[in-house]
């Protein structure tokens, strides 16, 4: 059972709930991973695979796919405008939160995350299959707009946030924030020239929002971190960033869905844009 | 020039479709656990790294035997990516018996021929990770040998 004190407790489902709804025609399970072959090694029965890079991103412009391509992606996986899409994946649900955020960019409202992600499902002995499901195609309406203004921040937005000293949350590891490293050690990296953080940003690593089993902390614990300690206010404009936007999607989900903050935007260009950008100011700290 | 054992594996992959390549990679990934050190094995070099943020532990173990023949073993944490597991199996087999210098000289451009251009494009760093670690181990071993030779002069 998820914490009823979350602002939107229905945005999370448990592994037990998923196990009991595998044949529910109104939901679609979507697995999104960092490990590109992981889905093919076995996935929750009925789950489809959406890759953050090949499915959701434009392949020639650093941006997301077009509304037409999004509609086609949903149609291919049998998703209608009314389908409740439940995301889960590896890496403590980083990429599932990223995919959920991308779905929200296109205005798909019925979205949830399976708390604890793929690792929890596997640890509990949940069924896995290598059978790739086929769903009848749907007529998903082409979204009239993309909600970039509402939930996405660009470089200029992050710069203004920095200059105005408004809340800017860096969710990377402390070493990345301090500028000691430019990527996570031993991690497949997207190159960046300089280490540090956006001036004025504060360090609240994504990991603080979850327990050892990758499930989200209680509403009270999250409030203590983000509202008491970080001082974020539910109506205040907040920008979150990391290195390429996946870990900050996780924190965006926490702030938006679990704490009910209304003006949170994810700066998906993140450090790989800021750290490489000519004349972008940076700060380093101990 | 690629080493014969590695070339055999490359030729096996090259005739496969992208879907078949992925299946073969998963099959190799399943075999990666067989590349872990056996009880009693002793190595010249052990390089075990752990990153708390996300990547699991990867340990590269190098034994250089008679005729400077390299023998790699690799330990992989449970969260290590499937592609990394697959490349571990492939490289432990493909580089077996090469000298450390020959390991260093293996060109990295064979990787797309195994995993396919699509996977390289999407996960460009992941596919080269184990090769980089093995080359790093070979380089450290060579540097130690050179330093040892210098000290004996």
Give a short summary of the structure.
Chain A has 286 residues and is an alpha/beta fold.
Defining key terms:
heterodimer; A: 286 residues; 5-stranded parallel sheet; 11 helices; 10 strands; B: 153 residues; alpha+beta; 3-stranded antiparallel sheet; 7 helices; 12% strand
Structure report:
The complex is a heterodimer of chains A (286) and B (153). Chain A has 286 residues and is of the alpha/beta class. Helices cover 30% and strands 12% of the residues of chain A. In chain A, strand 4, helix 4 and strand 5 (111-114) form a beta-alpha-beta unit. In chain A, helix 4 packs across helix 10 (246-258). The longest helix of chain A has 13 residues, at 246-258. Chain A is globular. With 153 residues, chain B is α+β, with helices and mostly antiparallel strands. Chain B has helices spanning 4-14, 18-30, 82-94, 100-105, 111-115, 117-122, 129-152; strands at residues 45-49, 58-64, 70-76. In chain B, strands 1-2-3 form a 3-stranded antiparallel sheet. In chain B, strand 1 (45-49) and strand 2 form a beta hairpin. In chain B, helix 1 packs across helix 3 and helix 2 (18-30) packs across helix 3 (82-94). Chain B is globular and about 55 Å long. In chain B, 34% of the residues are buried. The mean pLDDT of chain B is 92. Classes of the chains: A alpha/beta (286), B alpha+beta (153). The interface between A and B is medium-sized, with 22 and 25 residues.
């Amino acid at each position: 059972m998820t914490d009823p004190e979350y602002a939107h407790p229905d945005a999370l489902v448990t592994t037990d709930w998923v196990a009991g709804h595998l044949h529910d025609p109104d939901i679609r399970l979507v697995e999104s991973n960092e490990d590109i072959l992981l889905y093919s090694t076995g996935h929750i029965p009925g789950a489809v695979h959406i890759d953050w890079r090949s499915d959701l991103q434009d392949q020639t412009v650093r941006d997301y796919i077009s509304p037409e391509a999004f509609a086609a992606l949903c149609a291919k996986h049998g998703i209608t405008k009314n389908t409740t899409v439940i995301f889960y994946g590896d890496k403590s649900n980083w990429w599932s939160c990223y995919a959920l955020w991308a779905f929200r960019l296109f205005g798909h409202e019925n979205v949830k995350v399976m708390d604890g992600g793929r690792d929890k499902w596997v640890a509990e002995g949940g069924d896995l299959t290598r059978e790739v499901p086929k769903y009848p195609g749907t007529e998903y309406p082409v979204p009239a707009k993309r909600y970039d203004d509402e939930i996405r921040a660009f470089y200029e937005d992050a710069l203004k946030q920095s200059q105005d000293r408004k809340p800017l949350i860096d969710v990377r590891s402390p070493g990345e924030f301090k500028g000691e490293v430019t990527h996570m050690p031993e991690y497949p990296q997207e190159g960046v020239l300089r280490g540090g953080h956006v001036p004025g940003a504060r360090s609240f690593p994504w990991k603080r929002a979850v327990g050892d089993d990758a499930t989200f902390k209680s509403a009270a614990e999250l409030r203590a971190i983000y509202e008491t300690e970080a001082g974020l206010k539910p109506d205040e404009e907040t920008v979150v960033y990391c290195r390429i936007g996946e870990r900050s999607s996780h924190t965006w989900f926490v702030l938006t869905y679990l704490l009910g903050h209304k003006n949170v935007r994810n700066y998906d260009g993140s450090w790989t844009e800021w750290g490489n950008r000519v004349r972008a100011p940076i700060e380093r700290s101990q | 020039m690629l080493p014969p054992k590695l070339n055999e594996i490359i030729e096996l992959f090259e005739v496969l479709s992208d879907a078949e390549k992925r299946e073969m990679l998963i099959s190799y990934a399943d075999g990666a656990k067989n590349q872990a050190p056996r009880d009693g094995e002793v190595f010249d070099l052990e390089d075990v790294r752990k990153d708390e943020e996300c990547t699991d532990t990867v340990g590269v173990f190098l034994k250089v035997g008679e005729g400077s023949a390299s023998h790699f073993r690799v330990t992989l944490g449970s969260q290590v990516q499937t592609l990394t597991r697959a490349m571990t199996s492939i490289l432990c087999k493909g580089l077996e018996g090469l000298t450390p210098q020959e390991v260093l000289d293996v060109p990295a451009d064979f990787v797309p021929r195994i995993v396919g251009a699509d996977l390289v494009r999407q996960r460009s760093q992941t596919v080269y990770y184990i090769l980089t670690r093995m080359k790093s181990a070979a380089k450290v071993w060579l540097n130690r040998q050179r330093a040892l030779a210098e000290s004996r002069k």
